[in-house]
Amino acid sequence: MPTAIAASWVEACAADAIDEEDVIRFDHAGRTFAIYRSPDDDYFATDGLCTHEKVHLADGLVMDTIIECPKHNGRFDYTTGKAKGAPVCVDLKTYPVRVEGGKVLIGLD
Amino acid sequence: MTERIVIVGAGEAGARAALALRENGFAGAIALVGEEAHLPYERPPLSKAALIDGDAPRPATILTEERLAEHGIDHVAGASALAIDRAAHRLTLQDRDPLPYDRLLIATGARARRLAVPGAGPDNVHYLRSFGEAEALRRRLSPGSRLVVIGGGFIGLELAAAARARGAEATVIEMAPRLLGRAVPADLAAVIAARHAAEGVAIIIGAAIERIETLPDGRHRVVLAGRDPVDGDTIVAGIGAVPEAALAAEAGLALDNGIAVDTHLATSDPDIFAAGDCCSFPHALYGGRRLRLEAWRNAQDHGNAAAKSMLGLGEPYAAVPWFWSDHYDLTLQIAGLPDEGAVTVSRPLAGDARLDFHLAGDGRLVGASAVGPNGAIAREVRLAEMLIGRRASPDPASLADPAVKLKSLMV
Ligand SMILES: Cc1cc2nc3c(=O)[nH]c(=O)nc-3n(C[C@H](O)[C@H](O)[C@H](O)COP(=O)(O)OP(=O)(O)OC[C@H]3O[C@@H](n4cnc5c(N)ncnc54)[C@H](O)[C@@H]3O)c2cc1C
Ligand code: FES
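Above: inputs. Below: predicted complex with FE2/S2 (inorganic) cluster.
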């Protein structure tokens, strides 16, 4: 998990609002994020829009630790943000995540 | 040993192949030869964002200078290949020294089919295949101007949508009895047609074009048999594409609706391969049916597959065909080959979205087609694509039931 120091922690959703191996969209203060629950039951967060054509990744398919963009199937590893397959070549920004009292919190800078 | 690989055609398939050669460990020289002056760029935006967004559109570059340098790819831009000397293993270029090769990849794409009716010429009929052509069209689509599109296929209809977005009037003239041809199931085509009509696009089907005329005021006229003529400031013909196979034909390579390749994308010369829109290939998922696709993802997948084959790492090509097209806020996506289906099963989706599964007579899922807002259809089509790739025969009742997750049919 990224070790960035977060300036503020924001409550995004209930932990059980996301299915295992799935993703939801979270909008906050004019920004949009994608929050993931991995098959191993870990939570992750990235910027919400694909780096190719700014499409919401939360409409895409999660397979293991990969999120596939719903527009042209570009792939990212959502645990690191790394671009994994054409046509995407710019990585996604990731955010630290904590789960506390059944809530998912993401750390924003 | 393969030390020098030359790729002719620096489009989607050529650029992807160049990268894939490095990803697969090739350490020799790579020359990526293209007659366009630009860095390799994506064509799909040419009928979409490049006509609508921003002030000065720029090509959506596939390979930047930095990435070319990082991967040691020599991009020979603005260079037309004239001939392949198979005996000497050399590619001849216009105004440049020939390039020797050990393996050659032909990725020359396709060119817009020219409208062959009396009066049609470069002064009055435009085409859309290159970035330069998109720039020229964009300048002409000013508010209040009139666009006439000949051909109700994907590019023509996307162009009509772009014209509406820019405040121009648009008429689409189609020769067949319906829009979008046989590759798109009729029900889906009807949704797209209705949407264009609702956006104010005039659609004329079953038309026979007699000739093109230029009017005294500089505008142009499409004269139709037995109907009123259609006048416009700009005429664009989007009537399909012709595979760019001249180099292969002159070199005596086997042709069949473009350059004929085998399951490893090798031509009839074992040192020459072809990929993308320029070639036809037997598809392993469809009993070896020979296909030529004009689709962006196929060009990428072909580029990757041809790179591996050239390095002796290839496998029979079996990627599921996949295509998308955008019209206003609607996206159409097609996976597999709907025309291989005998039975269609529909799954109700939220809103106006529509998703159809196409099953062969033996129950195998062979295609899926959908239209709707991208977010409403993309996951389902992707899962269907995976089922198609696995040659699955899912229970039709489960496919039709929105309560059954497609992911659960995957195992
Ligand atoms: C306007 C438009 C919109 C599209 N929209 C979509 C879409 O929404 N969805 C989709 O799936 N597909 C779409 N496509 C199709 C997709 O872009 C093509 O399938 C893809 O570009 C094919 O890649 P390619 O590498 O085979 O050919 P191309 O991308 O055409 O590249 C071939 C290159 O080879 C060069 N070349 C040809 N001959 C020579 C020569 N003798 N010497 C040197 N260079 C040569 C050409 O100049 C060209 O740059 C669209 C295409 C167009 C034109
Ligand atoms: S918008 Fe995500 S891959 Fe194109």
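Chain A has a mean pLDDT of 93.
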